[in-house]
Design brief:
The complex is a heterotrimer of chains A (567), B (190) and C (222). With 190 residues, chain B is an alpha+beta fold. Chain B has 2 helices and 9 strands, in the order H-E-E-E-E-E-E-E-E-H-E. The chains are: A alpha/beta (567), B alpha+beta (190), C mainly alpha (222).
Chain lengths: 567, 190, 222
């Protein structure tokens, strides 16, 4: 028998990167907010520099809900279905901001206007025919104040490259104009990243330190980064990583109007007779609860956002909540981060310490920062070199055909080369396509008996061509820095990814989009959706800062339009 | 370049082309003291045995032979291309075969009679011989193909079959093969 | 079984290693395990620590296998001395218990395969034949041999290799990487909770710190 709790103004599902942001402006505006989080609080004492715990065993001390709900994947509707062993995201207050890389990029202005800008510069025919890409309902300028807010409220380190139109080569000259500097200077360089930066300048490129949601100096009374090398899928032992667990969530709690409910496993969103959402159903230790609310903000990860909508069927929404136009699960994409490039150097790189956000970027080949007139693709990639190496990872390095994978010869190789390889992180534009989508798996179920999500998606020619182009650029960069051997990885396919987008896309047209320009459902006026699932393009950079800026903007809109949305 | 030189180059090129066309590779006779043509390969040369490389012998190589290469593959696999079991090349032109059990440890030197030989990458992604290990159901055919090459080419170790064949194209002056079979029976139910 | 000759080899290698380990030892916190030296190697090799999941036969076979995967040689100790088998055994009694059956079946199949293909139990084979056999397991050549591998022998090998690497290069807290032999093999300068700019210079050689993350009092144990 479900127990019905006292009603709230707003209930937020999921306290990760997005929900963990939205709670703050709502609580500060005087609304009573309840946050439902499947995981628990974790503290710096849980964040040991332990590769087995973090990278091998998926945080055994944390709630494993996501790992029981790993989506299945097939490349297309007639391809075989496979299922990965673990989920890329995690449960906990702060969600994946606990163990993410904390690269904190703004999208490039081009990413908001892929259709109109491509048409203007190269002609409409350059957009792949089978792509469902649309311009965002607004441009970069509209989101800039919210980018700024999140950067300053959570704490982002970086160097501006475009301050109100004034370009500065110490930062990213390709970024959109920003109203002010970052709140903190960039994370420091290392010997290796300095070497790579010099090599990039030698090629005529414009390298710069990337932005990170990590303290480069004391910020909001929290410590600067200690660069110890275990925050790639690890939490920060000094709280220098500015996840929502140490920034916006505790501040929202201090208002006295934000209640965090942990170990809340949300199963459905309830709908009343008028077709409005009335509350959220969740399970804790086998007991079912109903949390009524006047407004529901759905802020789980992309996969769980879509799954919860599809599982929440009602008279008014027989195919799932907010899905009467059949758009839930459509326009799905995940960032092309495969097609890696790994280099072998003839000297030690000393990258045993550091973190994935401590690095040097090149954006000369990203987005539309270069002329595509003679090329056969649109978009591009961000080249990212960083300092990161842990022992088990190092011992699993590619042997460049110089040794087998074990035995005496391998041992001789690893003794010499463990600190001599580097793999670039290459984020490349991905487009949404008609045949890429999310739905419920017809067979695989979670431990409560609900179907898991199914991903049907694969890359197309545009992504493959970008991948080959970017690998060429990256190889040239490594060679310029002295690399003696290069191995290229395959692009792979579109299985579960930490950079997933779409499924509840944002746009003015309700025929092709689930949420409006404010992040509220076209079909359900008091349901807002937060996270990467509202984004229609990927750009060539990590999504977190953008989806946080969007979450803040949606919360702001809710505060300003409370009467029309909630009543 | 003056006219006369140009003419010489053209004539020279023609001669090479003509020679190439006229020069169909001679047939080599390939045998093995351990494997009879068309018959079952003994277990020691398969993954059901010690999986050592088999001894091979050849004759009939033209005088212009400088090096030999050997490829073993299986066209009966359910794949578009034959599965490659062995790639070995830079075998000296003086050799008349390969001894049994080429070392699998690259630190161990090659036997004296084939000193300088190197191995390429097989379908098992290792630069060593790995013998038959077919899925059960039907006999598979294993082709041990020997190439006589009229040049000492600069070939790095670790080449795949395709890379090797591309590299020796135009230099093959002799060719022959030994074909034998191997079959695995379905496993008894444990 | 480790022969007398092998033991001598290990001892020689460790003695050679000890000559260069002075700096490491100087940096050791009081009470921490010292870098590998002959006595401790001998203790770790025999007798073995009490088993928690594996049978003695399985542990012997696994020891012989990991001795080929990361051998002890003149350059230094390998996976056996690191305690990779102890790591696997303890893990199978705990977080990796779902793999216990895969080890039981996989090791039995590997031993059957040794007898079927090479006529002797794995431990009786020459090192070359052991390597050849392991290559056949690794590449899937042993799959349809009738030895009884579940699915592909390559999957069993991949699991075994992954766990051996974890047990050689992971935090010693889990029972492997004893004497920090894995970290020494890689030249990993160790877990530091604060890293200076100088530690990240090209050419810098931070003094190796040999301690587990849990030797500090900063972290809850998993």
């Amino acid at each position: 028998m479900a127990q019905t709790l006292k009603g709230a103004d707003v209930v937020i599902i999921g306290l990760g990167a997005a929900g963990g942001i939205a709670c703050l402006p709502l609580a500060e505006a005087g609304l009573e907010v309840v946050g439902l989080e499947a995981g628990t609080w974790l503290t710096r004492r849980d964040f040991a520099p332990d590769e087995i715990r973090n990278n091998v065993r998926d945080w055994p001390q944390a709630v494993q809900k996501a790992n029981h709900e790993v989506p299945t994947h097939r490349a297309n509707a007639s391809a075989p279905t496979t299922r990965a062993a673990s989920h890329p995201m995690m449960n906990g207050v702060g969600g994946t901001t606990l163990h993410y890389w904390a690269q904190s990029w703004r999208l490039n202005p081009w990413d908001f206007k892929v259709v109109s800008e491509t048409t203007r510069r190269y002609g409409r025919a350059r957009i792949p025919a089978e792509s469902t890409v649309e311009d965002w309902p607004f441009g970069y300028e509209e989101l800039e104040p919210y980018y700024d807010k999140v950067e300053w409220e959570t704490g982002v380190s970086g160097k501006a490259g475009n301050l109100k139109g004034e370009l500065d080569l110490r930062g990213n000259v390709f970024e959109g104009p920003r109203q002010r500097e970052y709140p903190m200077p960039p994370l420091r360089g290392t010997g290796f990243t300095d070497l790579m930066a010099a090599a990039a300048r030698g090629l005529g490129w414009r390298p710069f330190p990337g932005p990170a949601q990590i303290n480069s100096r004391t910020f909001q009374d929290r410590s600067p980064c200690m660069y110890h090398g275990y925050c790639n899928r690890g939490g920060c032992h000094v709280d220098a990583k500015n996840g929502t667990n140490v920034t916006t969530i505790p501040r929202a709690q201090k208002t006295g109007r934000f209640r965090v409910v942990t170990r809340a496993h949300v199963t459905t969103i309830d709908v009343d007779a008028r077709g409005r959402v009335s509350g959220v159903r969740y399970v804790t230790d086998g007991q079912e609860f109903v949390q009524p609310a006047r407004v529901v903000l759905l802020g789980a990860y992309v996969y769980e956002n879509v799954r919860l909508l599809l599982l929440s069927k009602s008279k008014a929404f027989p195919d799932g909540l907010s899905n009467n136009h059949g758009q839930v699960g459509r326009h799905y994409l995940s960032h092309a981060t495969g097609a890696s490039v790994t280099a072998l150097f003839p000297f030690d790189l000393n990258t045993w310490y550091g973190l994935p956000a401590q690095g040097v970027a090149v954006d000369d080949w990203a987005d539309d920062n270069f002329d595509h007139a003679g090329l056969d693709f649109i978009g591009g990639g961000n080249l990212w070199i960083y300092s990161d190496r842990r022992p088990i990872q190092a011992a699993n390095m590619n042997t460049f055909g110089r040794a087998p994978g074990w035995g005496a010869q391998w041992k001789a190789f690893i003794r010499q080369s463990a600190d001599r390889a580097n793999t670039a992180y290459l984020q490349k534009t991905t487009l949404p396509y008609e045949a890429n989508y999310l739905d419920l798996d017809p067979e695989v179920r979670d431990p409560l008996g609900f179907p898991v999500l199914r991903i049907t998606a694969d890359y197309r020619d545009n992504e493959r061509r970008i991948a080959a182009f970017i690998q060429d650029k990256m190889e040239a960069w490594y060679r310029a820095a002295g690399a003696i051997d290069i191995v290229r990885g395959p692009l792979g396919t579109m299985g579960p990814n930490t950079h997933a987008y779409g499924g509840t896309r944002m746009g003015d047209n309700p025929e092709t989009n689930v949420v409006d320009r404010w992040g509220f459902s076209h079909e359900v006026p008091n349901l807002g959706i937060l996270g990467g699932s509202v984004m229609g393009t990927s750009g060539a950079h990590n999504p977190t800062l953008t989806l946080q800026a969007l979450a803040w903007r949606t919360a702001d809109h809710l505060v300003r339009s409370w009467k029309s949305i909630a009543e | 370049m003056n006219r006369r030189h140009l003419l010489l180059v053209v004539v020279g090129t023609l001669a090479v082309v003509l020679a190439g066309e006229a020069r169909a590779p001679q047939s080599l006779i390939v045998t093995s003291p351990a494997i009879k043509a068309g018959e079952t390969i003994p277990r020691d040369y398969t993954a059901d045995g010690r999986n050592i490389s088999p001894p091979l012998q050849w004759s009939g190589a033209p005088a212009s032979t400088r090096e030999f290469a050997v490829i073993c593959d299986d066209p009966d696999v359910p794949m578009p291309q034959p599965f490659v079991h062995w790639v070995i090349y830079k075998i000296p032109g003086t050799a008349t075969g390969l001894p049994e059990n080429i070392p699998i440890d690259p630190a161990t030197p090659m036997p004296a009679e084939i000193a300088g030989a190197v191995q390429g990458t097989s379908g098992f992604r290792r630069p060593i011989y790995r013998g038959p290990a077919p899925p059960p159901g039907k006999p598979h055919h294993y082709h041990f193909r020997v190439y006589a090459i009229d040049a000492v080419l600069d070939l790095k170790p670790g080449l795949t079959k395709r890379e090797l064949l591309e590299a020796i194209q135009g230099h093959i002056v002799g060719e022959g093969e030994l074909v034998a079979i191997y079959e695995r029976k379905p496993a008894p139910q444990p | 079984m480790i022969s007398r000759r092998d033991l001598l080899k290990v001892a020689g290698a460790a003695a050679a290693g000890a000559a260069t380990a002075g700096a490491e030892r100087a940096a050791l916190p009081a009470g921490a395990a010292p870098a590998a030296h002959p006595e401790s190697l001998h203790e770790q090799s025999s007798p073995r620590r009490p088993l928690e999941a594996l049978t003695a036969d399985e542990a012997d076979l696994l020891t012989a296998i990991v001795a080929r995967l990361i051998p002890s040689d003149p350059s230094g100790p390998g996976a056996v001395e690191a305690g990779a088998v102890t790591y696997i055994d303890r893990s199978l009694a705990g977080p990796l218990s779902s793999s216990r059956e895969a080890y039981r079946r996989g090791l039995a199949a590997l031993e059957r395969y040794a007898t079927l293909s090479r006529g002797q139990p794995f431990r009786e084979l020459s090192p070359t034949d052991q390597d050849s056999l392991l290559i056949d397991v690794e590449t899937g050549g042993a799959t349809a041999s009738g030895a009884g591998f579940d699915g592909s022998s390559a999957a069993f090998f991949a699991m075994l290799k992954a766990h051996t690497w974890q047990g050689t290069f992971g935090d010693p807290y889990y029972g492997g990487n004893q004497g920090f032999v894995g970290w020494a093999m890689l030249g990993y300068p160790g877990v530091r909770t604060a890293v200076t700019p100088d530690d990240q210079r090209l050419g810098a050689r931070p003094v190796p710190l040999r301690r587990s993350a849990y030797d500090t009092d900063l972290f809850n144990k998993a």
